[in-house]
Amino acid sequence: MVNPVPAFPAERRRIRVSTSGEDVLLRLCLIALGLFLVVGLVLPIYTLLSKGVQDADGNFVGLQNFVRYFNEPRVSVVFFNSLRISILSTIITLTIAGVYAFALTHSRMPGRGFFRAVALMPLLTPSLLPGIALIYLFGTQGFFREALFGHSLYGPIGIVMGEVFFTFPIALMIVLTSLLTIDRRLYEAATTLRAGRVRTFFTVTLPAMRFGLSAAFFAVFTKVFTDFGVPITVGGAFPVLATDLYQKVIGGFDFQMGAVVGILLFIPAAIAFLIGHLLQRGRSAGIDGSAVIYIPEKSRGRDIACFAFCAAVALAILGILLMAVLGSLFKLWPYNLGLSLSSYNFTEHESSGWGAYRNSLKLAGGTALFGTALIFFGAYLLERMPGAGWMRAVLGFLCMVPLAMPGMVLGLSYIFFFNNPSNPLGGIYGTMTILILSTVVHLYTVPHLTALTALKQLDPGLEAVGSSLKVSRFVTFGRVILPVSLPTILRIASYLFMNSMTTISALVFLYSANTKVATISVLLLNDNAMLGPAAAMSVLIVATSAGVVSLQWLLMQGLLRRTGAWRGRET
Amino acid sequence: MVNIVEPAAGPPQSDRTESTAPVPALQISGLSKSFGSFTALRDIELAIETGEFVCFLGPSGCGKTTLLRAIAGLDVQDYGTILQNGRDISGLPVHARDFGIVFQSYALFPNLSVAGNVGFGLLGSGLSRPQRKARVEELLAMVGLGDHAGKYPAQLSGGQQQRVALARALAPSPGLLLLDEPLSALDAQVRLHLRDQLRQLQRDLGVTTIMVTHDQDEALAIADRIVVMRQGEIEQVGTPEEVFTHPATAFVAGFLGDMNFIPGVATDRNVISAGTFEFQVPDMSGDDLAGQVSLCIRPADIMVGEFSDDTPNRLDARVQSISFRGNYHRLLVNCPRISQNLEIEFRDQGQNGLVIAEGAPLTIALPPENLVVFPTSPAFAPS
Ligand SMILES: Nc1ncnc2c1ncn2[C@@H]1O[C@H](COP(=O)(O)OP(=O)(O)O)[C@@H](O)[C@H]1O
Ligand SMILES: [Mg+2]
């Protein structure tokens, strides 16, 4: 007989799990991730915010800086310029992207794959490129300047055109996703209920698009509101917040006002981010893998109309890209339109020569290497580590914050934080390290979410089984989690590389003579009216991005072929 | 062989001496666990003997998995102790405990072959490569997958995957095997087959096993002992026969197989009145059954046919509906005297001249020895 009375009853002791070396190591990793986010994100933002309420000597002055800023007569003009430009660009982008997405998913026009690929090409370009191409096309000496009926490109017209080009793929991807999740059975139900085409569109298609469109609205608005590349190239004398900030800090060294503008830039972005986040939350439950993809019926009229529209949009995108390439090849535009490669001879145009391009490769390589390792392992810790609940929740939130941080605001906050003599980390100021750090933080959120999604799909029992077999979590991570996640890791690395090649916003405040990167070089060449070399450098950036994307595609194919036996199918 | 029995000074140190009671493979006492304000497990007391096959049985959400995970150390309990072979493992991390586990999803390593999965736990075991290979082959042969060593989990059927997971859990020869609904993801046919295989394997290896299931047939068929759980508490522990024929509570009675519940009032120590009828029941003196009670009888235990006048608990009834169930007919009959419908499993064994048709009158008898009486519990409404 077994005596059911416990051997040592009396007081109820709360059970404490004895910590193993492995647990301690995991906690330390989590703490390291926390430190990274504190140093790279929290403290700089804090410094920026506090600078906004201090005077030049560091005394607390409340909202006085804001009062001073808004008392400058020019100021509200700049703020409303930004707002107007952003709203206008967003509406135009969404309209085009909405129709384009509808054509791609709800028609049988030929060339859908091609149109889709062309639409995504602006993702490979720095936002300076559309500006430069537009100068060739519609500038004072542009080939088609008459098309603007005497209006100047430099100003709202140019900015809106450039922003539409730049943000089109972002909007398109979001709207496409929402359209692809419509269940075919909804259309079948509508047909059996004898709903006409028009009614089906308004009762099935449009409601599904509405979510995508509103999510895209916030994404595009934020992007335009905080973009620097387009207005700096074609903004002319039309100031917006981003260029105003640049002038205040780089031109005027007015850091207090800079902080104020930075905070102003941050607020609408943060609001848009929060609303977008709420939208996403309410929605994600409705999207599951079980929806049956809709295959549209034949309709000649619709297909021709869709084709004509998509062809026009694709032509515009290709036209801008092609113009940049041509511009880089002209001998001396607009006087000598003979073709040569002299614009690519950077040593003749800049003291740094090819150095800027090499720096870009270093930055992109460093960001891809360090960023991928950090972001993937960080996501692993946050998603699959047992315990440490509150700490994981806090870090999980911090990982989302960079999405709401405009790059320029991040760059500015880095000046305040790292260029402070009392900061022991000040040594990295002016080095490649700070560029990599800022870029990793700037780009953190999207790959973090990619990693989270992939890790959530893995069976939650994998590590538990490993532990029950007395195999360390780290070994299970290396032998199972990592190999299974390789496609995701590849995707993250390529995203980081490509976006580090094309980004400029955070870097304008942080580069030094030795660490000037290619996008900065484009900016400076354009400033010095060297349009040809600026176009050449932009084209080089696009070519590199495209090369990396192709390489990722090739590697992915090889990887999936080699691991197809156990992976099943994967896109 | 001569056993030297040490003088009894302190607790027994070893279970090899014949004079002391064997230390249970697992002894759980006073175990509780909450998730926030929700109490998932309350004061669990349970002892499991070495070599036993124990099933945790209960409706979904009753805490079976939580208890299993507490034993594994995956979700450590808030209070209470767990002794494994006398060793206190209450607060030990997962890898310091001695068990193998199979999850409902199997959690196979998708990028490792069948052999790689099974051999995963042998890597740090100090075995040489050929020894590991031999052990993997032995295990695969044992679960009948000798020909599939090089395949990947995605290339196997559900039943094969389940066996890989089982072989992987057994590879380091754990002292305890934990199975969380290992059969529930399979088709009915495969499930029956694997259930028998699992039972046989466990017998052969003699490994102490705990299996979680919500399927009472599975538990009845496979277990040495069943732990019936409900809302974070243990309702009854016993052999399949015990819990089936002598359920300790109305809940257990209703959960294990079909059951008719007749509300009534105890009027004497062996009489319960329901409606205008008085049921003869086994002697209830000693039980606390004042007031409202439930009288329970399984549909298979109700007799149908002609009865002599001294047959107790005879009732007139009328057939409401009949449905054919293969080996038997399921009758729903109405009994006016107790104003209630009863379900009957009717096996036609040539009862002479009996007409079973919808609307036909019948006489039924409820043998007193098959009647079980429970106090009516407000928390459990019999369906
Ligand atoms: N991690 C958790 N957090 C909160 N509640 C939980 C958690 N795990 C289980 N529960 C709750 O505890 C109860 C018992 O769960 P479980 O043990 O999984 O039930 P089952 O008997 O079906 O295996 C359920 O009500 C479940 O919702
Ligand atoms: Mg369960």
What is the number of helical segments of chain A per DSSP (H or I, 4+ residues)?
23
- Shape by Cα distribution of chain B: elongated
CATH fold annotation of chain A: MetI-like fold
Note poorly predicted spans of chain B: 1-19, 378-383
Classified in CATH, the superfamily of chain A is: MetI-like
Q: For the record, what CATH class of chain A applies? A: Mainly Alpha
Give the strand line-up of the largest sheet of chain A: 1-2
Strand coverage percent of chain B = 25-35%
Counting structural domains of chain A, the number is 1
Calculate Rg of chain A over CA atoms: 26 Å
Number of strands of chain A: 2
Q: What oligomeric state do these chains adopt?
A: heterodimer
The CATH architecture of chain A is Orthogonal Bundle
Largest sheet of chain B: 6 strands, mixed
Q: Short description, anyone?
A:
By secondary structure, chain A is mainly α. Chain A has a single domain (10-567), classed as MetI-like fold (Orthogonal Bundle), CATH 1.10.3720. Chain A has 23 helices and two strands.
Describe this protein's structure.
The complex is a heterodimer of chains A (571) and B (383). Chain A has helices at 21-52, 64-71, 75-106, 112-120, 128-138, 156-180, 184-192, 197-226, 229-234, 241-251, 255-284, 300-329, 346-349, 355-384, 389-400, 407-418, 432-442, 445-456, 462-468, 473-484, 486-502, 518-527, 531-567, and strands at residues 330-332, 336-339. A two-stranded antiparallel sheet of chain A has the order 1-2. The longest helix of chain A has 37 residues, at 531-567. Chain A contains 23 helices and two strands. Mean pLDDT of chain A is 87; it is low at 1-10 and 284-289. Chain A has a single domain, classed as MetI-like fold (Orthogonal Bundle), CATH 1.10.3720.10. In chain A, a hairpin with a 3-residue loop joins β1 (330-332) and β2 (336-339). Chain A is mainly alpha-helical. With 383 residues, chain B is an alpha+beta fold. Chain B has helices spanning 64-72, 114-119, 129-142, 158-170, 188-205, 216-222, 240-245, 250-255; strands at 26-35, 38-48, 53-57, 79-84, 87-88, 100-102, 176-180, 208-213, 225-230, 233-238, 260-268, 271-274, 277-280, 292-297, 303-304, 314-324, 329-335, 340-346, 361-365, 372-375. Chain B has a six-stranded mixed β-sheet, with helices on both faces. A five-stranded antiparallel β-sheet of chain B has the order 13-12-11-14-20. Chain B has a five-stranded antiparallel β-sheet with strand order 15-19-16-17-18, with no helix packed on it. Chain B is elongated, with a radius of gyration of 25 Å. At the A-B interface, α19, α20 and α23 of A face β1 and β4 of B. Magnesium ion (MG) binds at residues 64-65, 212 of chain B.
